[in-house]
Amino acid sequence: MKKKKINYPVIDLHTHLRNDIPKHTKEAKEAGIDIVVYMANCNPPNDNLEKIKASLKEKRYCKALPVSAITKGLKGKELVEVEEIKPYVVGFSDDGKYLEDLGLLKQILKKDVLILAHCSPPFEIGVKRPDLETKFVKRYIEVFERIKKGNLHFQHISRKETVKLIREAKKKGLKITCETCPHYFTFTREELETKVNPPLGEKDDVIAVREGLADGTIDAITSDYAPLPRKTGIAGFRAFLPLCYGLVMMGVLTERKLKEKIYLAPKKIIEKGNPNILKIS
Ligand SMILES: [Zn+2]
User: Fold this and answer.
1) Residues facing residue 79 across a β-bridge
2) Mean pLDDT per 10-residue interval, the chain, length 281 residues
3) For residue 203, how far is its CA from the centre of ligand 1 (angstroms)?
4) 179: CA distance to ligand 1 center in Å?
5) Residue 186's pLDDT is what?
6) Can you give the pLDDT at residue 279?
7) CA of 94 to the centre of ligand 1 (A)
8) In which element (H, E) is residue 278 found?
9) Cα of 15 to ligand 1 centre, how many Å?
10) Distance 91 CA to ligand 1 centre (A)
11) Which residue from 19, 48, 151, 166 has the highest number of Cβ atoms inside 10 Å of its Cβ?
12) CA-CA distance, 125 to 98, in Å (whole number)?
């Protein structure tokens, strides 16, 4: 990998640091990643101000910015204390779970915050029903169209139909953003046996994700680093930059466009979510 051309801070907008921020940020740093945004599903989850403040005080080897849960205990029932939490986080996500209650989605969008939407059903269901990702994204888009407030960002887009749907929504002028992960533009399910959520797609899906990256439908690339208890080596820090750089080697992205996906766009998304957070942590 021509590492020397990556002369800007790499931002990974979607990681899970579990209950060990020092260990996992060290791994990020060693993999060439400078800033990570971490989801709320540690144990217990980051769903209240006290917990989030404590998390911010933990030692880290690279800049690490928290996301709060949308609902208390990630249970999908009751919103967290959004107003008091929002100065300390990038945004809100029930990643690890899928927020089914669209009423709660409406409520939190109205508070004008960034939502990092996890729209994939659990792995076992997703393998059998790959269409569900698109269906869930569609539902969220419909709610967002009605509310017209807040920022909506879709996590790990992996399917051809989802790319198409987001492309059309953006053409209509909807201000949504989305990301994919290296495994979705690199491997088909026939090529790699691994348990990642959403599951790997078919050849058509891989091609569509690459096209989505090239034409700007997909804004950012993230790792979805998800260590133990899962064995998801491919959704990791170490493979992140080499696989991203593969896009340049394949001619899918120029160096400049890769910089958009792993630095400029994630930075913009973070700053839209919370204009001050890059300064405080
Ligand atoms: Zn995740």
Assistant:
1) 71
2) 74 96 96 97 96 97 98 96 97 90 96 95 87 95 95 97 98 96 96 90 98 98 85 82 96 97 98 91 58
3) 23
4) 11
5) 97
6) 86
7) 9
8) helix 277-280
9) 6
10) 14
11) 166
12) 12
Using CA of residue 126, residue 128, residue 130, residue 132, what is the dihedral sign? negative
Name the token pair of 65. 């910015």
Q: Which two tokens stand for residue 38?
A: 């971490």
Type of residue found at 18: R
The residue type at 14? H
What is the token pair recorded at 88?
């300390």
Q: What's the predicted TM-score (pTM) here?
A: 0.95
Q: In which residue are the tokens 């540690």 written? A: 42
12 catalytic per annotation:
no
Collect residues with CB below 5 Å from ion ligand 1. Answer: 95, 224
In terms of residues, how long is the chain? 281
The pLDDT of residue 4 is 53
Residue among 94, 205, 219, 224 flagged as catalytic: 224
What radius of gyration, in Å, describes the C-alpha atoms of the chain? 17
